[in-house]
């Protein structure tokens, strides 16, 4: 802490400081030596949290990918239908649910850092109420998936099959509604390893039963739906069982009617989080959609989809740092440790940038070889190769951007960043992409340039915001934010 103050409560943020140590030794150090020592200490903390978070992200991201791999044995139309449902119908819901769950990430992180453990379970239950209500409304996109897909230009055959598959996938929608509050509740307490173990088990379960039901027994799309639903509910029920067994101590004291109180402030933060992150998810998806209107649309869409999938895999590292950073920042602000919160943003920014450069370098070195792993079409392979420099640039940008978004979530800036995303992405990036891709006839490369320039602008704005932040004020306002978003009566309840 600054100015010689002492924390009022011993929290997990303090525990991490004790384990890895910010304390100076007795030897005199130069500024560079001091920076490098503190950088190493904070890096250990971030990797301690981020490593299992990355494993969790990769495993959960792989569930849908494995389903699509096995669906290739069913038929071309069925594979396309499952892919369309995963990317459009489920992807739309995923963006909203993930975003709304991130509101809980801010509140639980600050409350845990402040030692207000009893409120974590209440916050999680409030998030369940809000997300399950949202799921009931989103369910209509699953029910009417067929006409929706026809309206946006999908073929009748794919729309019919995808619509049928969407109806079967409604249980997954409610698994999303339960899972994200559970995940944020556990993340705030730094229980990343538990989530990683559960996700690995779910992935193994998913791969085996996908092979059994789809490839071996020939259940087709029905088998794909059964396994995907069961895998997500396995994650939900296992995490819930872990909590109900008492592993979270005072953070879970049982179900309470308080979950239905003071929902308005909580809802505002959840909606701001949903807008912030959903705009991010849908922005990347726009590349594939816009590519469908180009000349040689099939080749453009295939190449853009391959690059987007690679971008998704490589940014799982950024997703892990996103979760770890939001926990570090919110915990330290809740514990009134502004210096540690500020320094964590510096370390995660540098680390994610270096990781992005490393991954991009690997991709560029293998630029002639890797396209053949995804397509047998020589035209598609050539276009993917031409897009490789842009894809490498995108990997660097999005790994850094996800880390900075974690800072915003931890500090509770979701509403502000939602406006930034709207302006940078949809008022600058998309129009520029359309201009370059269609007006200047740069094709799919023009679309990628436009979208990436929008992302670079967003990243620059976030860096500017973080650089101008008064972290002492942020720490002092953490308690006020708990009252504002968690409910007016929080102080009397604790």
Unreliable spans are 1-11, 22-26, 488-494
Tally of separate helices: 19
In percent, how much strand structure appears in the residues?
A: under 5%
Which structural class matches the secondary elements? mainly alpha
How confident is the prediction overall: mean pLDDT?
84
Number of domains: 1
Computed Rg: 23 Å
* Percentage of residues in helical conformation: over 70%
Described by the principal axes of the CA atoms, the overall outline is globular
SSE order, one letter for each helix or strand: HHHHHHHHHHHHHHHHHHH
Largest sheet composition: none
Total E-strand runs: 0
Termini Cα gap: 24 Å
Summarize the model shown.
The chain has one domain (32-493).
Itemize the secondary structure elements and their pairings.
Blueprint: H1 12-20, H2 31-71, H3 76-113, H4 118-143, H5 145-151, H6 156-168, H7 170-188, H8 192-216, H9 220-247, H10 263-291, H11 297-314, H12 316-334, H13 338-365, H14 378-411, H15 414-439, H16 443-468, H17 471-476, H18 478-486, H19 490-493
Subcellular location: Membrane
Transmembrane segments: 91-115, 127-145, 165-182, 194-214, 220-244, 265-283, 303-324, 345-367, 387-409, 416-440, 446-467
Membrane topology: Multi-pass membrane protein
């Amino acid at each position: 802490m600054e100015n010689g103050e002492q924390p009022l409560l011993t929290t997990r943020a303090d525990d991490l400081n004790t384990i890895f140590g910010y304390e100076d030794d007795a030897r005199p150090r130069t500024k560079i030596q001091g920076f490098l020592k503190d950088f190493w200490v904070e890096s250990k903390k971030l990797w301690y949290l981020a490593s299992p978070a990355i494993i969790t992200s990769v495993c959960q991201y792989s569930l849908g990918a494995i389903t699509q791999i096995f669906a290739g044995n069913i038929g071309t139309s069925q594979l396309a239908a499952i892919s369309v449902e995963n990317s459009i119908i489920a992807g739309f819901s995923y963006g909203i649910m993930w975003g709304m769950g991130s509101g809980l990430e801010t509140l639980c992180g600050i409350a845990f850092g402040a030692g207000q453990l009893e409120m974590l379970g209440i916050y999680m239950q409030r998030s369940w109420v809000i997300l399950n209500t949202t799921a009931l409304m989103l369910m209509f996109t699953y029910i009417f998936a067929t006409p929706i897909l026809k309206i946006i230009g999908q073929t009748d055959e794919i729309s019919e099959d995808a619509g049928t598959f969407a109806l079967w996938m409604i249980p997954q929608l409610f698994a999303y509604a339960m899972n994200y509050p559970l995940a944020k509740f556990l993340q705030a307490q730094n229980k990343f390893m538990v989530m990683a173990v559960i996700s690995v088990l779910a992935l193994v379960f998913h791969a085996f039963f996908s092979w059994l039901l789809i490839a071996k027994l020939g259940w087709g799309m029905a088998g794909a739906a059964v396994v995907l639903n069961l895998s997500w509910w396995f994650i939900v029920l296992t995490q819930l069982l872990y909590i109900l067994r008492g592993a979270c101590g005072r953070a879970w004291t049982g179900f309470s009617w308080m979950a239905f109180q003071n929902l308005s402030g909580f809802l505002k933060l959840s909606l701001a989080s949903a807008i912030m992150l959903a705009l991010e998810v849908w922005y990347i998806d726009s590349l594939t959609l816009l590519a469908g209107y180009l000349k040689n649309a099939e080749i453009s869409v295939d190449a853009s989809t391959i690059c987007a999938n690679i971008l998704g895999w490589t940014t799982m590292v950024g997703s892990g740092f996103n979760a770890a950073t939001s926990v570090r920042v919110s915990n330290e602000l809740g514990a009134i440790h502004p210096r540690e919160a500020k320094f964590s943003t510096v370390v995660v920014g540098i680390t994610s940038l270096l990781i992005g450069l490393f991954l991009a370098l690997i991709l560029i070195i293998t630029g002639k070889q890797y396209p053949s792993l995804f397509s047998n079409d020589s035209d598609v392979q050539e276009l993917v190769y031409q897009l490789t420099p842009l894809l490498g640039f995108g990997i660097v940008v999005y790994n850094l951007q996800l880390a900075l978004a974690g800072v915003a979530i931890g500090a509770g800036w979701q509403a502000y960043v939602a406006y930034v995303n709207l302006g940078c992405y949809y008022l600058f990036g998309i129009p520029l992409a359309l201009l370059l891709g269609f007006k200047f006839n740069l094709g799919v490369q023009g679309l990628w340039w436009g979208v990436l320039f929008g992302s670079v602008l967003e990243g620059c704005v976030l860096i500017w915001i973080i650089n101008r932040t008064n972290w002492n004020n942020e720490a002092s306002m953490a308690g006020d934010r708990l009252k504002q978003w968690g409910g007016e009566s929080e102080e009397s309840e604790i």
